[in-house]
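Suppose you are handed only these lines of text.
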Amino acid sequence: MAEHPAYPVGLRLAGRRVVVLGGGQVAQRRLPALIAAGADILLVSPGATPSVEAMADAGEITWARRGYEDGDLADAWYALIATSDPEANTRASAEAERHRVWCVRSDDADRATAWTPATGHSEGVTVAVLTTDARGRDPRHTAAIRDAVVEGLRDGTLVAPHHRTRTPGVWLVGGGPGDPDLITVRGRRLLAEADVVIADRLGPRDLLAELPPHVEVIDAAKIPYGRYMAQEAINNALIEHAGQGKAVVRLKGGDPFVFGRGMEEVQALTEAGIPCTVVPGISSSISVPGAAGIPVTHRGVAHEFTVVSGHVAPDDERSLVDWPALAKLTGTLVVLMGVDKIGKIAETLVAHGRSPDTPVALIQEGTTAAQRRVDATLATVAETVRTEDVKPPAVIVIGEVVRVGPEPAA
Ligand SMILES: C[S@@+](CC[C@H](N)C(=O)[O-])C[C@H]1O[C@@H](n2cnc3c(N)ncnc32)[C@H](O)[C@@H]1O
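From them, the structure of the protein bound to S-adenosylmethionine can be written out as follows.
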């Protein structure tokens, strides 16, 4: 039997009797997939691990608290033999053979009539890896192949475009703060599957260089906009490419809906009848402080954090931010797009009650190789930004949380 390769097949076990002999670690590992497959599971075992016991308590399996008895496999479609008693395993195996029940044996793969592959899942696909014959069995190797394939599919390094189910449209992907490892798994896969990527300056630009050659990458800042506003030109480009039946990824820095104008793009696409899916991203407002050693909340220090845009000064009539109210809060203020206006912002906060000694940290190009943190106080921040030549993009954190971590490296 061992000279022939195993014949791979997917068993559809919903509602069908599966008998598991032995309630130890093997059963504990295998049962969740059998439960997920909807099998009608009978566990025969005098004892079980706490996890297996919990499955029985939850009604996910039926547990007969005894040893194996001849006849247990009579109604089974499939069996897993994994007791610690070799003699019972052999008897059960013989019964499985008599009843023509496919049977996995944890103690003797050579005598088993079925093998469990190393399995993993990614976006509606099950990857199952089997060794060709029993003598060559190397479970760590098959698991490593499974991991490589599943990881590759998830992060887009293994490109397997959908053909039948592929639909044109736009995926609005939050790319995270800049480190290419901080995009979501889904975002990375969609990038690799795209026909066209329209990308902002912020976000994981390093990833763009790694995309397969068929992916057309467009720099959003370079789209000629003529008589349109820049944002309208981007919306039009999205509509145009998706309208040609292409899969378009709109790659944005951080999260698309945090000062990202993401909803404007969703609205324009919806109006044009183009399907659009939003893939959230890690916002710089939390991740950049975190990468610089600053928690936006900390027990006993800050019970709230507020994320504000500082792109217009507090006294600008276009500002929608109630700075006097923010000055009265005791928690953390996270200011995005605020480098140019930080002097006015600090002045306003102090004028409305925040202590001039309140610590401030500015983190420039967070999570990238060029990350830099500069510390100041509300009283000194305007001057510090000038002398230290702090440049956008930077996240500014105002509040006592700036001081709770270890001393920042000089
Ligand atoms: C137009 S907003 C977009 C924010 C983005 N949607 C997000 O969720 O992070 C741009 C601002 O985000 C902040 N920012 C984004 N990425 C950053 C990074 N890697 N380092 C520092 N600041 C960053 C800066 O304040 C920058 O001016």
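What can we learn from it? The two ends are 67 Å apart (CA to CA). The CA atoms of residues 124 and 165 lie 11 Å apart.
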